Amino acid sequence: MTESTVPSSESMPPAVCPEAQAAQEFLEEVPVSLTGHALRAYGSQMRESQADQRILQYLPLVHRIVSQVVSYLHPPLSREDLVSAGTIGLIKAARDYDSSKDAEFKTYAYIRVRGAVIDELRQWSFAPPTLSKQLEQVQETSARLLEEKGKPPSDEELAEEVQMPLEKLYHLFETARARHFLSIHGLDDEAPALGECLADPTQSRPSWRMEREELIEELGEAIQNLPKKQRRIIVLYYLKELTMRQIAEVLDITESRVSQLHAAALFALSTSLKKWKVEKGL
């Protein structure tokens, strides 16, 4: 009697579960066009799922940007209005994001959210004609005193020179800060967007790096010439990245006072840098 040969495990075909076999048979019978459609639908679903995850992950970014804008501008819009606008910007960013073309999503989202919040502010005027005229007078006076004394005037000196209550002067400083903020984004009709004032980075001049180094040096010197409390606010806000509320706690003053001193510091720095640019012929 011949002994039957038992096939080795290596020669046996792998076991296939009934569900997998049925799926394979189905795919073999489905037209190629339908299979492609199913794959595209699956890919679309996956992209939507990733977008939803990004939206949830970066919602805190919306609140952080709105907090920055509100502390800068004190806009007539409610915080909720700006958060809503920023959230819509985040949703659009998450849906439109293409990792093969755009920067990392955090950077892309920041630009889109900030842009959406700024767009919401387009309809509001932060410097009525009367304030604009007063601000121009204060800027001219500050520049004249800087030229005469070699250093920016104190807030009290400037208020006395323009015959204006100190609180009103701080209000003008905050208006100037708002106008500067909006001009960076091209929203101030009286000032071009900052990007239009800068040279194309792809066509940089040989002297560009030297000018930038001189600008940084001049800015550092101007910061050192600020009153002590204003200098601390600049450092805490821009280097330590504290909010104005946190700075108020550190310095034991009110948040509104921090805002006033921050605006005054920026005004003084702007006056010093304008003088430097005129002297350099820039």
Please outline the helices and strands.
Elements: H1 18-29, H2 32-73, H3 79-96, H4 105-120, H5 129-149, H6 155-161, H7 166-184, H8 194-197, H9 208-224, H10 228-239, H11 244-251, H12 255-280
Tell me what the structure shows:
With 282 residues, the chain is mainly α. The protein is built from 12 helices and no strands. The longest helix has 42 residues. It is globular and about 65 Å long. The protein starts with 17 loop residues before the first helix and ends with a helix. The N terminus is likely disordered.
Question: Which features characterize this protein?
Answer:
single chain; mainly alpha; 12 helices
User: Radius of gyration over alpha carbons?
Assistant: 30 Å
What gap, in angstroms, lies between the N and C termini? Answer: 107 Å
Q: What would you call the shape?
A: globular
Work out the strand percent.
Answer: under 5%
Please bin the fraction of helical residues.
over 70%
Q: Which structural class should the secondary elements be placed in?
A: mainly alpha
**Topology as H/E string?**
HHHHHHHHHHHH
Largest sheet properties? none
Number of strands: 0
Q: Quote the average pLDDT.
A: 76
Low-confidence stretches: 1-7, 186-203
**Number of helix segments?**
12
